């Protein structure tokens, strides 16, 4: 094929190939070639290393452009990398670290990694791994200056609120599990209305609250409420006095309890001391025994 050298149009007439580039120096397999219309490619040692295609995409170690991506860096080992270095040090490395798809952004120097919008820093990860949002000097693993909004989702923040939907007759002076069988809400489906147990699936510390509504047809001399964890009483509250026959009385219990997120469970128990028919009473969904808990702090 003839080669034309023109002072206006330059060199034309030879497309070349990766092994025999059209434009080269004394190294015959290193230079520039033209693999297709509107495509400019660069080769070293007879192998294409980079090309600029008709769409303006810069493709390094690949000939395939994904969508409208303007820069694509590939590696046959699955570890395509882009590194930015200021003047010294290892710099910032963006890479796909495995062929399976894992990726990483790594600041490989002992320094801070900053994130900014509108030319202002919004977040940073300091050299010790602390994350700061709204602050450039994070002092803890996560340090936020400003309001935080958390949207609850499955697996996030277990919480429930439930109540007894019917009266329950009990034996005097006998701790009895309260049949809490109707839910107002249960964010993670961790409360069982059949066995009346709350078994949270997230480890942490839970605020637990319980109220028992008691009624004695003849006499009622004591009303107590208990929180049981794994079948054992861990907190009790009660009142000991004489109640007017037929009247409802209430007593409440509250405690912060650690739960392991797998096997730990809690239940609400009550006890009435008295004579005649003794019941955990029910008048309505707001005048009855109730049970609730929510995660307040992770483990």
The CATH architecture of the largest domain can be named as Sandwich
Report the oligomer: single chain
Which fold name fills CATH's third level, the topology of the largest domain?
Jelly Rolls
Order of helices and strands: EEEEEEEEEEEEEEEEEEEEEEEEEEEE
Strand content: over 45%
Helix percent band: under 10%
In one word, what is the shape? rod-shaped
Number of strand elements: 28
- What are the low-pLDDT stretches, counting only 5+ consecutive residues below 50? none
- Whole-number count of domains: 3
Radius of gyration: 36 Å
Structural class: mainly beta
Mean of residue pLDDT? 86
DSSP helix count?
Answer: 0
Task: Explain the overall architecture.
- The chain is mainly beta and 299 residues long.
- It has 3 domains: 4-73, no CATH class; 112-150, no CATH class; 159-298, Jelly Rolls.
- Helices cover 0% and strands 49% of the residues.
- It is built from no helices and 28 strands.
- Strands 16, 17, 19, 22, 25, 27 and 28 form a 7-stranded antiparallel sheet that branches.
- The radius of gyration is 36 Å and the shape is rod-shaped.
- The termini are far apart.
